[in-house]
Amino acid sequence: MNSQNQPDTDTGAHLKEISSFLRHFSVFQETPVEVLKLYAYLSQKVEYSAGETIIQQGRPSDRMYLIMQGKVSICEERNEQHFFLQDLTETELNCFGELALLAKFDWFFSARAITDVTLLSISREAFIKIHERFPEQYPLAVERIVKLRVARFVNQIDYLLDHLPKEAWKECKILTDDTTDTT
Amino acid sequence: MATKTWQKQSDDIPVCQRSLFYWILRKHRGIQLLLLVIILTSLFFRVFPLEMQRRIINEAIHLRDEQLLFLYCGLYIGAVLLAGITKYLINVIQTVLGQKILMEMRTELYHHILQLPLQFYRKMQPGTVISAMTAELNSIGFFLGGALAIPVTSILSFLVFVGFMFTLSPLLTLLSISIYPLELIVIPLLQKRYNRLNKKRIKTTRAMANVVNEAISGIHEIHANAAYDLEEKRMAGFIDRLYSLLKRLLFVKYGIKFANNLFQSVGPFILFLIGGYLAINGQFTLGALVAFLSAYEKVYDPWKEMLEYYQALQDAQVRYKQIMQIFDVEIEHLILPGGRGIIELQGAIELKNVGFTVESGVKLLSNITMQIRPNEQVALVGFSGSGKSTLALLMAQLYKLSSGSLQLDGYDINTMSKADISRNITMIAQHPFIFTGTIRDNLLYSVRAAADGEQEVPARRRIMMTIRDVGLEEDILRFGLNSVIPYERVAPLKRKFLRMRHIIIHELHEDYTKSVEIYDARKFLHYSTLRDNLIFGDSLRGRYTVESMADDHDIMELLTSTGLENELVRLGLAIARVTIELLGEFGDDEFFFRGNPMESGEFERYNSLVQELGDEAPQKKQDRTMFLKLALRFIPGRHNIVTMDPALESAITEARETFLNDIVKVDLETCCHGIEDFQMEQNLLDLPRFEQERDFIAYCPSEYLYSHTLLDNLLFGALKEELRENQHLIENAMDAFRRERLVDEIIDVGLDFNVGSQGDRLSGGQKQKVAIARAFLKQGRILIMDEATASLDNTSQGKIQQVVDKKFRGKKTIIAVIHRLDLTPSYDRIFVLKAGSIIEQGSYDELMAQKGAFYELAKST
After folding, report:
1. What is the per-residue pLDDT across B232-261, written as a single tens digit (0 to 9) for each?
2. How large is the angle between the packed helices B137-144 and B146-168, nearest 10 degrees?
3. Which of A101-105, B567-571, B685-689 has the lowest mean pLDDT?
4. The domain spanning residue A111 has which CATH number?
5. Residue B473 has pLDDT above 60, yes or no
6. Average pLDDT, integer, range A156-183
7. Which of B307, B676, B825, B832 is deepest in the core (most CB within 10 A)?
């Protein structure tokens, strides 16, 4: 089904460019070329200027974002205050909202543009449509997303624990006591 | 005016009990008399040529008198001509007459049908009514026109021709018509059988109409369950049955025809045999024999007509009776009160021992006694099936009580006319009906229906207020913004729309530039199609569409002379190639074409075109046109499929300038200045008018773009990103419009939104809100709400409850059937129903304190 019989000569340079950009992201590192091209084709470029809200906590999620350029902050809103969790740039941990590809939920964090940013977004609908065509790619995609999520989780927890005052620490006495509730 | 006619007719026989001939004889007697006179005249002209035939042979030819021959021939042809003309007149008058009678029949029957009680329609399927009112009546109409004239003509012609024959030879006449009585026995026998089959056919056709009607009404369910087979099977039974009935019907029909023909051929046989014998023996002249034969031929025509008439009459009678039979139900209430004015109620309702039993004998309500004071607000609550909705319907006179009495201000509800009720009572149904038409039509339905203009069409301010009260403002604003407004409608509002555009571009500048790429005549527009970039405007007559540009001489000359044609075809080809390579296997999925100038339906065509071309460039004009179209639809900022050469951008902008200046003659200077003037908050400058090219409207700030939606016009540019929420910009704009009282203009436009067939384009909540607004706009002392807000969200329900509580307090008696008990505290009194009886009543606090059924009910929800 996914065998591409056509010669590759005519592919638009434009799609190739986006594809090779996507290749830099961990989520797409092992994605076959023909699938990657579809992602490139279905992705949309969005620009935000510094200070604008990209994701508003509580609104329904429908897409993930990849940072092409600029800096984005991830915050948690609680009691009408914003708590900083993470800074993202185009180099490291360069995307956010990846869980939106897998499930429908309301955003549990906000994302804001710190500088002027250029993003590439991929909608859940596109993700689903692509995997309807390439079902064998789905497990790999899920695994990649989960790994990305774990990396982010670790990064955020590290930050929180680093900034938690000593008094708020609670030592873990027994192996299976309580789990820390984070986002 | 119309009502007067109805009143007069109420003295007549009820519509459904009239005989078919009642309609024919009741009116149009003058025309019918005229028809008869023409028929008699025509008869003369039909017999006259026969006499001439005889004289030509017997006198002119026999005596060898040329003068006489010319005279008789002249008279013959003259008579034939006049016979033809009179026949034509007869046909015309008959048809017109028939259609006139049919029109009356249909109008009066429809008037009757509309008034039939709701109970009638619980059993009657719509398909039956539709079939009866349309096709079945039509076939009667064909018969009606000739119903009187045909038998009279036929009988008279028959007698005249027989008489003529008799003067020629009494013996031959008697012999030749001796076969007719036989037919009188055979044909009615066949006809009887035909009638029986015909009745069955009508029933089957109706049943079939009902199945189709139900399938279309329930098409959601059918699609959702993929119940195509099931529905087809349901239909197949009827199709088979109808086929077999029609087959048998035709057998009988042609049997009758066969009998007719057979009898007809026996006549000449006898004539030749005996007439010939007589002529040979000199007992009969040759001229007389020729005339006799002609007469025999002619005499058979009216005979055949009589037989056919007999068949048509039988057919029409069967159909007519089948129609009238189903609607022969008594109307429960008069439309207008006889002999008095329409009652103005204060709003008191009194029920004594009211009971309601349906035909099957099930008692839905028994022994209901209650007194409601004017302006009291009363809630009816209870379990499902407790009879609370039925009670509301009884109060609205939509059902007729079976026992007890129901009085409004002391008037017995049974004696009140529909006009009395509709003047005073407004009802909101649980599942309101939305009519095909605009929102405005639906809102004003009740008001417009009021007879004699007793209620004035509400002022615009009141309509707007009601729309806000029921929470429809947002929806209608959206409809307004998404409307393409017709030219005539824009004209008076143009200034205001341009002012709104000014507010958005100027006052909301920051938000605006973030989300919209303004139409700037000097710049390449990344978020508009190449077509828009090139043409930068629209033709009111629909010239310069993507589809038609390739056939437009001016455009093609411009594209060729600038070399753009080649470039665009190349771009189109590149788009097609990349799309086909990328989506080769998904060409059928519309989703993958959302960000592509190609549509999924076109994929196959482009695919075979590209395969055919291989590496060649397209040469044929039609192929080039295909690729040109793709390029013209291309939006560089949105379509990911290819990137465009920046050199092409400037070439397009230059070509645009040439097009605007030289071809459509738009003054670019003024157009561009417009933008600056616009943003500098100076006066709006109208473009100098070029009357001969006024068909073209360029994207200049002072122009209203008639082929675009209102929102497009206000934004005056293309949205940069579909993703980005421009909601913020629009919300701010609306606030600004409200401050300047401009928002009502948009609502006004939104009111013209066409709701589609039965309101299909509205959501359930929107339909309900429209129905509530419709009722709120109607003046009346009693408002009955039958779970009127049940399909709305909690906030909307609360909002409407508040309007009822605050705005109608002291002005209307409110009867509300309510399911959600948390909405009941504001009511003066609550009646709790169970199994058709009232088991508790009192205020909310009283009932809660009682800890009875209401308390239990409230606790459980």
Report:
1. 988 999 999 999 999 998 998 888 888 878
2. 40
3. B685-689
4. 2.60.120.10
5. yes
6. 71
7. B832
Instruction: Give dist(CA B702, CA B674) in Å, integer.
Output: 6
Instruction: Classify residue A37: in a domain, yes or no.
Output: no
Give the Cα separation of B522 and B861 in Å (integer): 65
ipTM: 0.81
Look up residue B57 and give its two tokens: 């042979």
pLDDT score for B842 = 92
Q: Do A12 and B721 touch (CB under 8 A)?
A: no
State the residue for tokens 């007589």: B278
Mean pLDDT of B771-777: 92
- At residue B333 the predicted structure's pLDDT band, cuts being 50, 70 and 90, is confident
Chain B residues whose CB is inside 8 A of the A45 CB are 721
The pLDDT of residue A177 is above 60: no
Interface of B with A in 715-754 (CB under 8 A): 720-724
Query: Could you tell me what percent of chain B has a pLDDT over 70?
Result: 95
Q: How far apart are the first and last CA of chain B?
A: 53
Report the CATH fold assignment for B349-472+755-860: Rossmann fold (3.40.50)
Residue-wise pLDDT tens digits, B783-832 = 999 988 888 888 888 889 988 988 899 889 999 999 888 888 989 999 99
Q: Do domains B16-327 and B349-472+755-860 have the same CATH topology?
A: no
DSSP string, B314-372: HHHHHHHHHHHHHH----SS-SS-TTS--------EEEEEEEEE-TTS-EEEEEEEEEE
Q: Is residue A83 part of a domain?
A: yes
Residues of chain B with C-beta less than 8 angstroms from the C-beta of A17: 643
Distance CA B5, CA B310 (A): 34
* B640 with A6: Cβ contact below 8 A: no
User: With contact defined as beta carbons under 8 Å apart, do A71 and A117 qualify?
Assistant: yes
Domain ranges in chain B?
16-327, 349-472+755-860, 484-519+664-751, 540-658
DSSP letter string, B181-215: HHHHHHHHHHHHHHHHHHHHHHHHHHHHHHHHHHH
Distance of alpha carbon B629 from alpha carbon B568, whole angstroms: 9
Give the one of B595, B640, B723 whose C-beta lies nearest to A14's C-beta: B640
- Looking at domain B16-327, its CATH class is mainly alpha
Please say whether the beta carbons of B482 and B711 come within 8 A. Answer: yes
| pLDDT attached to residue B452 | 55
Under DSSP, is residue A87 helix (H, G, I), strand (E, B) or coil?
strand
**Mean pLDDT value of segment B142-156:** 81
Contact yes or no for B831/B841 (Cβ under 8 A): yes
Range of the domain at A129: 44-162
Q: How many domains does chain A have?
A: 1
Question: Got the DSSP string for B440-500?
Answer: HHHHTHHHHHSGGG-SPPPPHHHHHHHHHHTT-HHHHHHHHHT----HHHHGGGHHHHHHH
The nearest alpha carbon in chain B to A6 belongs to B581
With b for 16 or more beta-carbon neighbours within 10 A and e for fewer, the A20-49 pattern comes to ebbeebebbeebeebbbbbbbbbbbebbbe
What's the mean per-residue pLDDT of chain B? Answer: 85
Return d(Cα B238, Cα B482) in angstroms, integer.
45
Closest-CA distance of chain A to residue B640, Å:
6
Which residues fall within 8 angstroms of residue B499, CB to CB, at 6 or more apart? B740, B742
As a 3-state breakdown, chain B gives helix, strand, coil percent values, each rounded to 5, of 65, 10, 25
In a domain, A16, yes or no: no
**Position A63 in a domain:** yes
Tell me how many degrees the CA angle B704-B708-B711 measures, rounded to the nearest 5.
85
Residue position matching structure tokens 């919209």 = B516
Q: What is the pLDDT of residues B584-630, one digit of tens each?
A: 877 778 888 888 999 988 999 999 999 998 888 888 889 999 999 99
Numbered residues of chain A with Cβ closer than 8 Å to any chain B Cβ: 1, 4, 6, 10-15, 17-18, 37-38, 40-47, 49, 63, 121, 125-126, 129, 133
